[in-house]
TrEMBL record:
Residues 74-101 form a coiled coil. Keywords: Coiled coil, Signal. Residues 30-57, 420-442 are annotated as: Disordered. The keyword Hydrolase does not apply. Residues 33-47 have a biased composition (Low complexity). This is Alginate lyase domain-containing protein. It comes from Paenibacillus allorhizosphaerae.
């Protein structure tokens, strides 16, 4: 783990004490990234609170908090994890159900992409509908924020892809925390089917992602579908050393990721997505950088973060923390949160590569922190004043709210995470993958 990541873990106790007094803020970084750690520092393992049944080094995850995972696993091994019982019980129930899940594959779709190869992933853009004025409905017309259920049919891969990624994540997390090998065996089987087995694997491209009937067989927005690779990559890291996921499997998976990274860097559709002015470009950065890290290109990932992300912050976040391109949508609360999720991922990568994006601030005062400060009051009950055509479940964002609560010593962010989780506050897996801010006495 790099020096900055080690410091983050070591000083958490000091930050927690500050949190109790309700302090906020932190040292600002203006314009210049922090220096990257030395190679020797970067190679040191993360510390862990207690020894676990296996290695005490934190896993090489980039979205899930590796230090938290390692600490909880040690507590479980020592029989000292009562505070996580509800979350762990829920995770095991989901993992037990996942043991019965048949493998998912792109070759199972009922349609064939223009390439003629069912190994090419294929999806339909969510907000496009048949034109009622046309006999065949084509070309489809856009209804922003209204999802066409046709996208979720067996004709396309989108639902199957999401289920595969979610199931693998559940199994891998349950395996890492409990050591129950059948979870790893099933997760490995699902990963090999989707990525490695010649008869069923996905080709490493998104050439036919987010198509629109009558308009485009594949669009730049298809890159966004590939955010699920971030979940499968963290999961694959949790499986290392298990009987269900061999070194050969991991090497093959990393090779697949490297091929997809090449597609992201070279394909015209992907490069168009990189130039987007809204959340699509932030997610392009999060996907590309995360997969570079997982495929072993740490140096390239670090360089890309410093090159790209300051410009994204400058262009997409206002001085007051608003995100104009997202807030003009019909789901005007969801999309700023969705964009900030990608920015938060980039900040987590920065912790591992020596660039403190959590504290980074442009010369004119724009920052990720400002975006959190802008949204948190609305999580905590303040009425949202902009267009929002449906209720949203933003529970997935709770992990980033908790990370931010620790980083910024801001109790309101921890409260926002709890409100977002609602009745699942105790049983959510967020309790297993993100830091727990301290409980404040009433």
């Amino acid at each position: 783990m790099n020096l900055q990541g080690k410091a983050y873990f070591i000083v958490q106790s000091a930050l927690l004490a500050a949190l109790l007094s309700g302090c906020s803020g932190g040292v600002k970084q203006t314009g210049t990234p922090a220096a990257a750690p030395s190679a020797s520092e970067a190679s040191k393992p993360e510390p862990s609170g207690q020894p676990s049944a296996k290695s005490s080094a934190a896993p090489a995850t980039y979205i899930m908090n590796g230090a938290v995972l390692s600490d909880i696993r040690a507590k479980i091994a020592a029989g000292n994890a009562a505070e996580y019982k509800a979350a762990l019980d829920q995770l095991k129930r989901e993992a037990d159900a996942a043991l019965k899940t048949p493998p998912f594959t792109v070759t199972a779709k009922t349609s064939v992409p223009l390439s003629g190869d069912k190994h090419d992933y294929m999806s339909m853009a969510p907000y496009w509908w048949p034109d009622p004025a046309k006999a065949d409905g084509k070309p489809y017309i856009q209804k922003d924020g209204q999802t066409n259920p046709e996208r979720d049919t067996e004709k396309y891969d989108a639902v199957r892809f999401g289920k595969m990624a979610g199931t693998v994540e559940t199994l891998a997390l349950a395996y890492y925390l409990t050591g129950h090998e059948p979870y790893a065996v099933q997760a490995g089987k699902l990963l090999r089917t989707w990525f490695l087995d010649s008869a069923t694997k996905m080709n490493p491209n998104m050439n036919f992602g987010q198509s629109v009937p009558g308009r485009a067989d594949g669009r730049k927005e298809g890159v966004l579908d590939s955010r699920h690779f971030l979940a499968t990559s963290d999961a694959a890291s949790l499986l290392e050393g298990s009987t269900g996921w061999s070194k050969q499997d991991q090497d093959g998976y990393r090779s697949w990721l490297s091929q997809y990274v090449r597609w992201l860097k070279e394909n015209p559709l992907a490069l168009q997505e990189k130039k987007a002015t809204n959340n699509h470009s932030t997610w392009y950065d999060a996907i590309l950088t995360g997969l570079m890290l997982h495929s072993g290109d740490r140096e390239g990932a670090a360089a890309y973060l410093k090159e790209s992300v300051p410009g994204r912050i400058a262009a997409q976040i206002d001085k007051d923390g608003g995100q104009p391109e997202e807030m003009k949508r019909t789901r005007s609360f969801h999309y700023p949160v969705f964009n900030l999720e990608a920015f938060s991922m980039l900040a987590l990568y920065g912790q591992k590569t020596g660039f403190d994006l959590w504290k980074y601030e442009t010369a004119d005062g724009k920052s990720i922190k400002k975006a959190f400060d802008f949204l948190v009051p609305y999580f905590n009950g303040k009425p949202w004043p902009h267009a929002q055509i449906k209720a949203e479940n933003e529970a997935d964002f709770a992990a980033y709210l908790r990370e931010a609560a620790i980083i910024y010593s801001d109790r309101s962010m921890a409260e926002a995470a709890d409100k977002t989780l609602g009745s699942a506050k105790s049983s959510s897996r967020v309790n297993l993958i993100a830091p727990q801010p301290p409980k404040v006495s009433p």
